[in-house]
Design brief:
It is a single chain. This protein has helices at 34-46, 59-97, 104-111, 120-131, 134-137, 144-152, 155-160, 189-195, 224-228, 252-283, 303-306, 319-340, 352-356, and strands at 20-26, 49-57, 166-173, 179-183, 205-207, 210-214, 234-238, 296-300. Strands 1, 2, 3, 4, 5, 6, 7 and 8 form an eight-stranded mixed β-sheet that branches. Strand 3 (166-173) and strand 4 (179-183) form a beta hairpin. Helix content is 46%, strand content 13%. It is globular. The two termini are 26 Å apart. The chain is built from 13 helices and eight strands.
Length: 357
């Protein structure tokens, strides 16, 4: 079982004035993580919720460390500034190094509703990465994300700062198949890249003799660190991958997209099922509510918007695209706060059975 260190001084609600304390769980999803950027930006701007801990994976892990670093330097304003800086750098790096450079005529087709998975550029990239491994295609293990992370985040400061947001980053141990959770004192660029290591694109990230792939295979995001760590009962899950699709996928790209979404939602669905089971036992007095924590679960998502985006757009570094997702995330968060702020600390704002079972 993963052990959690005790050396980090978690901020309490007293440190945050009258804010309601919550934990946040951030899914991964490449460039679609700009939606979570918008969610976090709005939460920081609104100021009524105090984020005490974040469990995150892949692009969510990047948002988490950038937010925590910015917060440690300048509070909510510093967090917002760092998130904007990070996604700006992601766009600039993507324009220079993206493996899928969309051609102008392909952008024109996309504007008329043609899915990006049908792009010959993306099809060639997908065929290449399924034929050759990253050890063959990228023998020098170049990853532009490392430069962006090290430019935006001072990991030495973040890992030693004992008065900031608690971070839990998930990665998958390639050899054992088990989840690895990196905490604040273990935060490095390698730990974040391990959480975001897509095995078709990047070589496994080696840390202390162990090899890691993307955390989404085992925890996207992992909820159990937020439960075991104590602190607030409220967990706000920021979804990137649509849970539900109304339209039956029939084309090859649509089927591939849906398989990807189901796979990267599966670990979260299992944890939510376990939480619902324990909650039901507490409500039925089969478990002692004084000994077992009754989790309050909240969800910020936009399945309708995200379902329109194919998996290829997870590699899209276009600034206009990233800002559109940011603005969607901000809008959904504003709606969620208006509707559900009063429930925080009192009850779940979603029906776990309806959404996850």
């Amino acid at each position: 079982m993963t052990q959690f260190t005790k050396g980090h001084t978690q901020m309490s609600s007293r440190d945050r004035g009258n804010q309601k304390p919550v934990n946040v769980a951030l899914q991964g999803g490449g460039a679609h993580g700009a939606f979570a950027w918008g969610v976090l930006d709005k939460l920081m701007e609104d100021g009524r919720l105090g984020i005490e801990a974040i469990s995150a994976t892949s692009a969510g892990a990047m948002n988490a460390v950038v937010l925590a670093h910015g917060y440690s330097l300048g509070g909510a304003a510093g967090a917002r500034e760092k998130l904007t800086e990070f996604w700006t750098e992601i766009s600039l790096a993507g324009q220079r190094y993206s493996p899928v450079q969309t051609l102008p005529w392909e952008k024109a087709l996309a504007a008329f509703g043609c899915r990006s998975e049908f792009s010959p550029t993306y099809q060639a990239f997908q065929a290449l990465t399924h034929m050759f491994s990253p050890y063959q295609l990228n023998p020098f293990n170049f990853n532009p994300l490392r430069d962006v992370l090290e430019k935006v985040v001072d990991f030495d400061h973040l890992s030693k700062c004992n008065k900031t947001i608690r971070i839990f980053l998930s990665a998958t141990n390639v050899r054992s198949g088990k989840i690895k959770v990196f905490q604040n004192n273990e935060l490095t660029a390698d730990a974040v890249l391990a959480s975001a290591c897509l095995p078709y694109v990047f070589q496994a990230v080696e840390i202390d003799g162990e090899a890691y792939w993307d955390g989404g295979f085992m925890g996207n995001p992992a909820i159990f660190p937020l439960i075991y760590n104590g602190g607030p009962r409220d967990v706000v899950i920021v979804h990137i991958n649509p849970i539900e699709r109304k339209k039956l996928p029939t084309s090859s790209p649509e089927i591939f997209d849906r398989i990807n979404e189901i796979s990267f939602n599966s670990s979260l669905m299992r944890e939510m099922r376990a939480i619902e089971f324990v909650t039901r036992l507490i409500d039925e007095s089969a478990l002692d509510g004084r000994k077992y924590k009754r989790m309050l679960v909240h969800s910020i998502r936009d399945d309708a918007e995200m379902a329109q985006l194919g998996v290829a757009t997870k590699l899209n570094p276009d600034w206009e695209f990233l800002c559109r997702l940011r603005d969607v995330g901000r809008a959904r968060t504003a709606e969620w706060l208006d509707k559900n702020f009063s429930k925080v600390g009192q009850e779940s704002s979603i029906d776990l059975t309806e959404v996850f079972l």
